[in-house]
Amino acid sequence: MIPDHTQHLGVLAVAVHIPAAQSLKEKRFVLKSLKDKVRNKFNVSVAELDGQDKWQTATVGFAMLNNDRRHVDQCLSHILSFVEGFNGLVVCDSAVEFY
Predict the structure, then answer these.
(1) Tens of pLDDT along 39-70?
(2) How far apart are CA 70 and CA 68, in angstroms?
(3) Burial class (CB in 10 A: 0-12, 13-18, 19+), 36
(4) 97 CB neighbour count, 10 Å cutoff
(5) Domains with residue ranges and CATH for the chain
(6) Which burial class, exposed, middle or buried, applies to 79 when counting CB atoms under 10 A from its CB (0-12, 13-18, 19+)?
(7) What's the whole-model pTM score?
(8) How big is the chain by its Cα radius of gyration, in Å?
(9) What is the pLDDT of residues 3-51, one digit of tens each?
C-alpha cells in the first residue's frame, strides 16, 4: 500500500510567437529545441498543447509533480524565465495552475 503523501502538480502554459517561422517545419524545429533543452535542464514533462496547425504560434505546457509546492512553483518560474530568454520565440502569455 502506498502511504498517503500530499502531492502538488504544477502546470505552466506558455503561449509563444515564433516570428521567423515561415513553415510548420521551421516552427517545429524551434519548438523541438526548446522542449529538449527544458526537459534536460529541468526534468519536467513538456508538450505542445495548441496551435499545431499554425506557423508562428503555439502553446507549450510544462508539468511537474512534487511533494513541496514551493519547489514546484520555483521550478516553473525558472522555466518561464528560460523560455522568455530562448532565441527564436517571444512569450505572449503564461499561466500557472496547481492541482
Answers:
(1) 999 999 999 999 999 999 999 999 999 999 99
(2) 6
(3) exposed
(4) 11
(5) 8-98 (3.30.70.1120)
(6) buried
(7) 0.92
(8) 15
(9) 767 799 999 999 999 999 999 999 999 999 999 999 999 999 999 999 9
